[in-house]
Amino acid sequence: MTTPYVIAPPPQPAVPVRGGGLFPVHRIYCVARNYAAHAREMGGDPSREAPFFFTKAADCVLPVADGECGRFPYPLASNDVHHELELVVALGSGGENLSVEQAAACIWGYAVGLDMTRRDLQGEAKAKGRPWDIGKIFEASAPLSAIVPAGGAVPHAGAITLKVNGEVRQHGDLADMIWSVAEVVAYFSRYYRLCAGDLIFTGTPEGVGPVRPGDRLEGQIEGIGSLSVAVV
Question: What residue ranges carry the coiled-coil annotation (predicted)?
């Protein structure tokens, strides 16, 4: 069979769906400082001014099926890698300039995710006034649990907790978000044409901190599910 590609195309990034099937990943958007306490611990001023955001490459996803423990390889060129536990929204449809109601209707499901961050490289880039993609975009930097179909529900509350080696590091509630789930989706649609397959990381509560090889991370979001990852 002939093919127009001059090299073999890369595999389609995908995440398992609870109950069976795979969710193909198109793009990954991430909201920064969407919990007031985390904004303060990062030196920010929490308010309802326009949120800011960054992106990750689709192949940053590290899919972890229910009941499994993912293996997060400690990345190159960093000595200070941090965990950030987040509710992740998976879109089944999209559009531009969506209202909050339209944005909610685009949501296909939810997952528990980790935004792993090379904090030292991020901090160096910030200090020099450079983009800090290098701190956020690297292999396996987006561990993700199986996606749970939304069934029309939009969570407004629920405990979000991360333990490292059995000790609670991060704890908050989805109700603590500055911008709600649907508001976040609507906001992104002002700048991008959102598409089916897009993932949106909705921010992390306070307590972010470093991990080391040998650590075991266990994240849980009430009503959504759990995520287990070993740092290797």
Answer: none
